[in-house]
Amino acid sequence: MPVARRRVASTVGAIVLAIFALAFSKAADIAMAWFARLFQAVPLIPLILTPLIFAIVAYATKRWASAARGSGIPQIIAAADIPESETAGRLSSLKTGVLKVVLTLMMLLGGASVGREGPTVQVSAAVMVWVHRIMRVPITAGVLIAGGAAGVAAAFNTPLAGVAFAIEELAAAYEQKVALLVMAAVMISGLVMIAIAGDYVYFGVLQSALNLRQTLLVAPAMGIAGGVMGGLFSRIVLGFTNGKYGVAALLKRRPVLFAASCGLIVGILGILSGGTTWGTGYAPARVLVEGGRLSLWFGPAKFLASIFTTLSGTPGGIFSPSLAVGAGLGNAMARLFDSPSSAVVLLGMAGYFVGVVRAPFTAVIILMETTASRSMILPLFATALIADAVSSLISRERIYHGLSKAFAPAPEEPSDRD
To answer: What angle is formed at CA 165 by the lines to CA 109 and CA 30, rounded to 5 degrees?
Structure first.
């Protein structure tokens, strides 16, 4: 009976979280569209609206939703280590998940450079935990991991990537029974998404490929460039978050003012880039994957916008912005090679994403599934492995695991008798 109840809870949780993820995706698109229309009507409005929303969200996060700040993936990593603790309950509560979604949507409405995949992971894990609690099934690490993995699958419509991400990032010790729970949750949420939204390709279909000579030239170059830039992003974020930089402590004393300052910078970058740096970055990345061209300024501007949005301490993910920055990097470097620009862009996405997240298998699976580019699997793996090695030299600690430490409970003080 307990086993049957657990299976029912996992099935119901996967269905519900898929519907949540789809609704979140649609709401995010609407929020970005509203901001884009407002920018077209009043081109200088980001100089006021963006810092104002950054400040409001930073205050609301600090005051009511501290467990919802940042990506959402570090919270689930921390919760999975101590699934039955009070801290885990707070990080994976449905209240926290809902606040995470609302605050992320507010950030998108203000032009922040944030993704919805990290928040989807947190709210999906929260939904899975909520369903298990209702059905009186014990909460284990596997429940959190399965919910988070299904969230990745639902966010990108990529079932294999959900399993890969669970292996590489969410689960420190990946057991067989957890594997079955993850795959079941991913499969069910994927089927629900396909039934409702259709079998779409997230970043569009890649129409080009690289031959061996081109692969030997482009893959190492994009791996090194992506690893350097992604590792730099991780090092800056982790150094600031962990207080390694003296300026961090000073700025954290005025978190709302600091968030507003970050918002002003993001607003200025958006105006200078014609609005391409705002939001998830999905639209410009798709343009580049399908063979279009953007200004060389897009990649560096999106990188800076993502840095300042992340440092502001507000909720929002880094998945999609990282893929967009990588696309911008590929767009800039494509002119150096006698190769199809869209293929170089794809390898740029792989290199930078791996440089930030340090999950090469997940990156390859996501990009292969979201662009239908099976012919690029070997160049993608080569780029990803090189980027992982280069990034590890710049930032030894993986970003999500480093950020998860801020959500772990403080160690107990030793007593006088110890």
So the answer is: 20
Buried b (16+ CB within 10 A) or exposed e, 39-62: beeeeebbbebbbebbbbbbebbe
More confident residue, 22 or 225: 225
Confirm if 184 and 11 have CB atoms less than 8 A apart: yes
Q: Provide the whole-model pTM.
A: 0.89
Q: How far apart are CA 330 and CA 345, in angstroms?
A: 4
Could you tell me if 81 and 408 are in contact, meaning their C-beta atoms sit under 8 angstroms apart? yes
User: In which residue ranges of the chain is CATH 1.10.3080.10 found?
Assistant: 2-197, 212-405
- For the stretch 290-302, pLDDT in tens is 888 899 999 999 9
Task: In whole angstroms, give the CA distance from residue 237 to residue 203.
Answer: 27
CATH of 212-405, one of 1.10.3080.10, 1.10.3720.10, 3.40.50.1820, 2.60.40.10: 1.10.3080.10
pLDDT tens per residue across span 116-165: 989 999 999 999 999 999 998 888 888 888 888 888 888 877 777 777 78
Query: Do 155 and 149 contact (CB within 8 A), yes or no?
Result: no
pLDDT digits (tens, 9 = 90+) for 353-390: 999 999 888 888 889 888 877 788 889 989 999 999 99
Other CB atoms within 10 Å distance of the CB of residue 414: 7
CA gap 383, 23 in Å, rounded: 34
